[in-house]
Amino acid sequence: MNVAIDINGVIRDVFTKASYLYEKFYIDENEYSKSSEYNEETGEWSEVGVDKDFKYELDLPIKSLNLIEHFKFPNEQDLYDFFYVDFPMQIFGHSSSTENTTFNDLNNLYLNFRDKLDITLISDEMGKSKPATLFFLSKYGCLIENITFYSNFTVDNVIDRFDIILTANPNIIEKQKNKNVIKYNTSYNENFKSSNSINNLSEFELLLNKLVK
Questions:
Q1: DSSP state letters, 104-173
Q2: Domains of the chain
Q3: Which one, of 146, 150, 168, lies nearest residue 160 by Cα?
Q4: How far apart, in Å, are the Cα atoms of 22 and each of 29, 80, 103, 153?
Q5: The Cα angle at residue 47 between residues 42 and 51, in degrees rounded to 5
Q6: How far apart are CA 96 and CA 32, in angstroms?
Q7: Tens digit of pLDDT for each residue in 16-35?
Q8: How many CB atoms are closer than 10 A to CB 105?
Q9: Of 54, 52, 58, whose CA–CA distance to 23 is shortest?
Q10: How many other C-beta atoms can be found within 10 angstroms of the C-beta atom of residue 74?
Q11: Residues above pLDDT 70, as percent of the chain
């Protein structure tokens, strides 16, 4: 039996780190929203790249994966640059785990089921968040050897490979079909229903014992 465990939201808390960085650089210091330019005619320095009508704001808690509603940017490209160009290692590599015992529970689960299940970590990643994710897993001593990255274009193919999927991602939860999709409860998937849901990885192991015969 093939089992997938999603990284974001289940194992890694991306949004706490992203919120900290956004608040620090775009609200407190504001250094990424402006730069200075020297005007030879006036002999003065002036700020450029500043939209006087735009205000950087952080809307918490995260209630959906339409992130521009929570991390306010002038456009989607700026949002993408924040996550995947300017801060990918800080956000995806140095985020904390979702729980204090996440990797103890994850490694114990792997050791207890490695002879019964083929366990794979899956993760929705783009660009430089991929190597940052590998760093995150190595930093915490993850024992699971199978890792698959997916995108909006490949998610259906990835889902089809697994019999059981543990995820916090609403885009996967709503694609349940006939599979056992187990929802890891978060603030941004409250409105998505699943036949099984958990709050921590230790609950997942108990549930696996019931599902795996």
A1: HHHHHHHHHHTTT-EEEEEEE--TTHHHHHHHHHHHTT----EEEEE-TTTHHHHHTT-SEEEE--HHHH
A2: 2-13+96-211 (3.40.50.1000), 15-93 (no CATH)
A3: 150
A4: 10, 13, 27, 28
A5: 130
A6: 24
A7: 999 999 999 998 866 555 55
A8: 19
A9: 58
A10: 14
A11: 86
Structure tokens at 25: 């650089």
Q: How many CA atoms lie within 13 A of 189 on its CB side?
A: 22
Which amino acid would we find at residue 31? E
The 10s digit of each residue's pLDDT in 153-206 is 898 888 889 999 999 999 999 877 656 899 999 999 999 988 889 999 999 999
User: Cα-atom radius of gyration of the chain, to the nearest Å?
Assistant: 20
Which of 8, 1, 4 is closest to 158 using CA atoms? 4
Diameter of the chain measured on Cα atoms: 79
Q: Which residues are CB-contacts of 93 (< 8 A; sequence separation ≥ 6)?
A: 131, 132, 133, 135, 136, 139
Q: What average pLDDT does the structure give for the chain?
A: 89
In this prediction the pTM is: 0.87
Which of these, 47, 133, 121, lies nearest to 83 by C-alpha position?
133
Q: Are 48 and 36 in contact (CB under 8 A)?
A: yes
CA 63 to chain centre: 14
